[in-house]
């Protein structure tokens, strides 16, 4: 849990993407004695939206699913499955222009289970129009639509991942279309086992004296995960079910150090379940109506021992019911398009925490949340090169702690006279809400010294983002960006001056400001070598007048660089090789300073069989196991250091069998907040 807030915040702003762009050569056309050749554009721009030919970018990469493929987009990071976008404070992933209100872990599992061969293209929106019902940046994954001519098509995929422990799983993905009906099925089964390690040195000041408290924490976790996604479409009516069931989920933590030997044991008392049912209807006159229901349930127990002596135990339970409905309408008015609509979301979070042999306060609480909004927007393209979309949304938010009105404006614009030079400007603002569990104020114990405490006084914060993109020759991208989070949140360790306790609690800072410049440049030598270089230079500042009872103002220049390479032995070679390099200079997170990290990845992709229906992918990530930082806090009496020693090195072997389609093509012309473990 402590690792998550280290990596996510760094990589959210730092563009740790390892992309490879290989020109997809259009077949030469013989016109008498004239031979015409061209490269398929990899990046297009319109209305402030960047459309990327991601299938063409990753076709020689050892990539088998959409989640892995997203890391090769311009400006996108994929750090062990955590997706970020350079210049955006956060990013939402949607499918085919439709928002899926599922927990992030479930969404990532769905993307992991979806074959990369289903991918048509990807749209990057730094400022999504309000009609998508998303605030801020969006990655829209556009999938191919099956037709009756395709019949039944799909693929079977199985894989093994060796890190400290081995994990394995399989996926079945299939589509079928007949007349006006379309069917989509995606099922995955995974057995995961994880390992992590952290060493900490806490020079703790309390009662006027300093005491060095050392600790070596190792964690082991395992579970079975069943996930299913299925949809049925009839003409313009679509019904979708997405669910996940996690069973045999348990973890153990082993802590040894100054205060003794501790063991924490956590297990699910019943399977973690998530069910999501949605319906969408699109009328011929431009109206879209949608409704969605989600049910999430989790019940876990935690026990803490010192040596063999029982210290305490707790039971956490969370059940969330959430309804979401919306109506959208589009009208063409001459050369303009008018969009307007409304949405309403109600959620009921019933959470509880009960302790045994502990002075911690129990709670059993129901938190109701309502969000309602109205929006209006328009878009227009002019013959002289300008296209834009602009919208404004009024939002009302209410729970028992607070209620407020928000105005959320958005602008996305593109200008180009020729495709060789494209300019894009994006502006947006959004309000970020805390997780349900944190608002209940529960307490979780890492050991007898370190605790994670919720915060009922945690406030949502307002995030302002602006980006200016310059796209050269539909290949090279430069992005100048600015981010400002007013009352942004952070979770970091704090040494209590009153007792020997280390406290992890999410709090509101004054602000966090980031300004940076990112470059993305593909190059290479024919089909033999194709590479992508990326560089991001940014200045980051975090300030808090009240971080518990101290203050800080931390500012630093940060550099990120990467080089991604693909090699082929011949133009039609069934084998391709990739080697990727990434580096992040020393950075910061709130009051903490983070050390520099680097990694080298390598992989081999081999396609074989009839029409290359089979594929083996072998990939080694972080070969030298260097993608783990050291966190240091030395400010206003706080003296703390944590070294993450996770096994980030891992070896992945994947086998794919495609049946009746989902085949790779050389010339694919483009036609176009849950959980208690906080």
Average pLDDT figure = 87
Gyration radius, in Å: 25 Å
- For the secondary structure, the number of strands is 40
User: How far apart are the first and last residues' alpha carbons, in Å?
Assistant: 7 Å
Low-confidence stretches: 1-37, 662-672
Gross geometry: globular
Percent of residues in helices: under 10%
Discrete helix count: 5
Beta-strand content bin: over 45%
Query: How is the biggest beta sheet arranged?
Result: 27 strands, antiparallel
Q: What would a concise description of this structure say?
A:
By secondary structure, this protein is mostly beta strands. It has five helices and 40 strands.
Summarize the helices and strands and which ones pair or pack:
Blueprint: H1 2-13, E1 25-31, E2 34-39, E3 43-46, E4 49-52, H2 54-58, H3 66-70, E5 76-79, E6 82-85, E7 91-95, H4 104-113, E8 119-125, E9 137-143, E10 153-162, E11 166-178, E12 181-206, E13 209-234, E14 237-257, E15 260-268, E16 272-282, E17 287-306, E18 309-333, E19 336-356, E20 363-381, E21 386-398, E22 403-415, E23 421-432, H5 436-440, E24 443-445, E25 450-453, E26 461-472, E27 476-486, E28 489-495, E29 502-508, E30 511-525, E31 529-547, E32 550-568, E33 575-584, E34 587-589, E35 592-594, E36 597-608, E37 614-621, E38 630-635, E39 638-644, E40 650-659
Defining traits:
678 residues, 27-stranded antiparallel β-sheet, globular, five-stranded mixed β-sheet, mainly beta, 5% helix, 40 strands, disordered N terminus
